[in-house]
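ok trying this again, last paste got cut off
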Amino acid sequence: MRFVILEPDGRGNEFVLTGDKLGQDVLDKACEKLGIKEKNYFGLRYIANDNSVWLNLRNPVSTQLRPHLPGKPHRLRLEVKFFVAPQELQQEETRRQFYLCLRKQISEGKFNLTKEKSVQLGALSAQVEYGDYTVYRKTSANYSQLLNPSWTNREVEKQVAEAHRKLEGMESSAARDTFLNVMSKEELYDAEIFKAKTGHQKVLVAVGSSGLKVYERRANGKLKQTIGFESILKVNVSEERLIVVLRKTSESSKLNFVHFFLASGDAAKAIHKAVMEHQLFFCSSKVRRSVLNHYLLSTPCWALPAKWFTKTPSGDLYHLDVKHTRRQSYDLHYRNVHSDGGAFRHDWESECSKCNSKEANVLFTPCGHLVYCEGCAKDETVCPVCNHTSTTWQRVYFSNDAACDDWTCQICMDSEINTAFSPCGHVCSCEDCACHLPYCPICKTFITFVQRMHVQFPDHLFKDDVSDDGCDSASELTEFS
């Protein structure tokens, strides 16, 4: 089978694989071509029965894609399936693909951006694509292709040009990371949108990292309802309907049922799959085996040879293809990206190296260097230690006194502390212990991912330690040797 994998910017890569290969094999081939190691955030889309659906990575490709005419390849689109926070992205190519996918979604009108936000994002995109304003003037490009369709007019384009002029000298990577940080604060940043009906009203259902949000289906439609994953008891699909069962608010209350009517049965299955997978990826500490072995669909007749129709019953296919949660994906990607030994570690400084007055308590990401205080790090786009572009920074809180000499893990009391929990920012554990903690041991906050810290703390030589009987431990060892 021939495949053409299209990137968000329209560029295509062609591959040839046998039909018995899994969807994961196709994604691996595309990511290998682009040099992407953080593969768990991406997926492949294709058109089936006028619906855009995700290729199931755990099922054979031949059971999902209908046979094409001879000589015509299957066309799939490489897109971001799970939009995580920018500080979790460790690869340049991954951040580039996130940027391209978000820019495409802006041009398609997914986001209800304000005029000011559209101008800011348009200027940042121009800096990424064309460089400084003086270089842009020499091209035949137009700002309109970088803007939300709602704000495409001459007045806005003039404001974008003025904002672009003010970005003179900014590196393309810094402008891209600023773009990602601005977009990550948008309400629909991590959401997948579906068209549905509730009763007689047309709505848009946004399935995101925290749950479902229901909007009126019109320009700048108002938010009608928010359904968090913690309040969902069960999600069922019946023909063209998605049924969401909500938990009881009290012992005397009844179960609440929310019904969403989709355009077709395939659309209902797609939104059901999206709800289940987003809940697993963003809100679970691990994926259970019972979930991995969950079946729903059967092998379509056209996926089997004609001579087997009456001899071999159709086989069952996996319904969900999420094999790792958000946190497991980050840990796996970290090992893949830093397989050569990790980033450069710098010597620990308890005070901010810029103002020399406040505590160094800000962790630059994704590099993991700790050198500035919160006030000095706000305007920095480059890590002062490794000179790499910083997507953002995280405020951290030490479990001990930052001026003390004890930097051992508070759990195993053996290894050195080298991790910070996100989003709470507490620093108290080594990497091995952190992998087994679903919640922060200090504040009990659910850990979305564990940020590595590349800091060389002072060694513990114990030269001045004195034993309980008053003898110096080092001299005592010499005497008995």
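PB: full thing came through this time. The mean pLDDT is 83.
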